[in-house]
Amino acid sequence: MTTVGIIGAGHIGSALAKGFARHGYDVVIANSRGPETLTDLVSSVGERARAATAEEAAQAGDIVVVTVPLKAYTEVPVAPLAGKIVLDTNNYYFERDGHIAELDEKKTTTSQMLQEHLPESHVVKAFNHIMAAHILTDGSPTGTENRRALATASDSEEAVALVTRIYDEFGFDTVTVGPLSESWRVERDQPAYVVRQNAEELEQNLTRAER
User: Fold this and answer.
1) Where are the alpha helices (DSSP H) in the chain?
2) Positive or negative CA dihedral for 14, 18, 23, 26?
3) pTM above 0.85, yes or no
4) CA–CA dist 160, 88 (Å, integer)
5) N or C: more exposed end of the chain, with fewer CB within 10 A?
6) In whole angstroms, how far apart are CA 176 and each of 52, 113, 161, 206?
7) How close are the terminal C-alpha atoms of the chain, in Å?
8) Residue 138 main-chain phi, psi, to 5 deg
9) Who contacts 72 (Cβ-Cβ below 8 Å, separation ≥6)?
10) How many CB atoms lie within 10 A of CB 141?
11) Could you tell me how far CA 115 lies from the centroid of its own chain?
């Protein structure tokens, strides 16, 4: 049985915990306040979930989701994530994270920053441009007309293939943006951000993105 470690228990992390559990994954979830604060969430997810520290979630996960505020990304454990695929849901909100010059000047992307922090992991953008409330409600079976699509980006083909499979399990088509350096196309203030779109529309919105 595949175990998913989830570092971050906010709206996205909580929705993904429930979604992964529904699709047969075991879930180990952590937040910054300690496992004892996650009792209600774990209860709502069910018997496939348990709470842990970030280090434990990183160690336990065959794959790991990082869904913490960008300002906290350097607190993500490094060693236990070596060699693993890491799903990055993050976006840059300067109002929350403070101004980050490299991002303001368009010299890097949030996912590239996480990849630099996790040099031996395979970072892949996932679930960053959908409202948390829609993760469990907007999916539909494979082949459904006008099926919603989500984007991904990674420097690893294996990571893109994994996210493509996960998106399909959650009920979404996949559009691949390209490497992490192109992941800005699906972030905040871009045409593809948090709007419902099918694969063709998503591809068009990615093309329309301006940096």
Assistant:
1) 11-22, 39-45, 54-60, 94-97, 101-104, 110-117, 132-135, 157-170, 199-208
2) positive
3) yes
4) 12
5) N
6) 32, 19, 10, 10
7) 41
8) -100, -5
9) 32
10) 8
11) 13
For residues 172-185, one letter each, b for 16 or more C-beta atoms within 10 angstroms of the residue's C-beta and e for the rest, the string is bbbbbbeebebbbb
Whole-angstrom distance, CA of residue 160 vs CA of residue 177? 10
Which residue in 22, 102, 14 sits closest to 65, CA to CA? 14
Structure tokens at 193: 């951000």
User: d(Cα 79, Cα 198) in Å, to the nearest integer?
Assistant: 38
Q: How far is CA 186 from CA 17, 72, 182, in A?
A: 23, 21, 8
Name the β-bridge partners of 153. 125, 178
pLDDT in tens, 135-191: 999 999 999 999 999 999 999 999 999 999 999 999 999 999 999 999 999 999 999
| CB distance 114 to 73 below 8 Å | yes
Buried/exposed code over 44-82 (b: 16+ C-beta within 10 A; e: otherwise): ebeebbbbbbbebbbbbbebbbbbbbbeebeebbeebbe
What six digits make up the tokens of 166?
């996960």
**Rama region for 96: left / alpha / beta (φ>0; ψ in -120 to 50; rest):** alpha
Residues 93-105 pLDDT 10s: 999 999 999 999 9
Inter-residue contact 35 to 23 (CB < 8 Å): no
